[in-house]
């Protein structure tokens, strides 16, 4: 029984870490897009 619990706990930890990583990547991409937009606005 404890093997299954350990496996489930590891699976949850990996899933949460992946969600955090994907959210961070989305924020980085968003900031990059904002920087490009600001540069384009200044160049007008």
TrEMBL record:
PROSITE patterns from the UniProt entry: PROKAR_LIPOPROTEIN
Keyword Nuclease: no
Signal peptide: 1-25
InterPro entries noted in UniProt: Entericidin
GO BP annotations, alphabetical order: response to toxic substance
Phosphoprotein among keywords: no
Coiled-coil regions listed: none
Keywords: Cell membrane, Lipoprotein, Membrane, Palmitate, Signal
Assigned GO CC terms: membrane
Family the entry assigns: Belongs to the EcnA/EcnB lipoprotein family.
Protein's UniProt name: Entericidin B
Organism listed in the record: Paraburkholderia lycopersici
């Amino acid at each position: 029984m404890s093997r299954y619990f350990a496996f489930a706990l590891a699976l949850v930890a990996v899933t949460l870490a992946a969600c955090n990583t994907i959210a961070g990547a989305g924020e980085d991409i968003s900031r990059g897009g904002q920087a490009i937009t600001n540069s384009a606005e200044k160049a007008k």
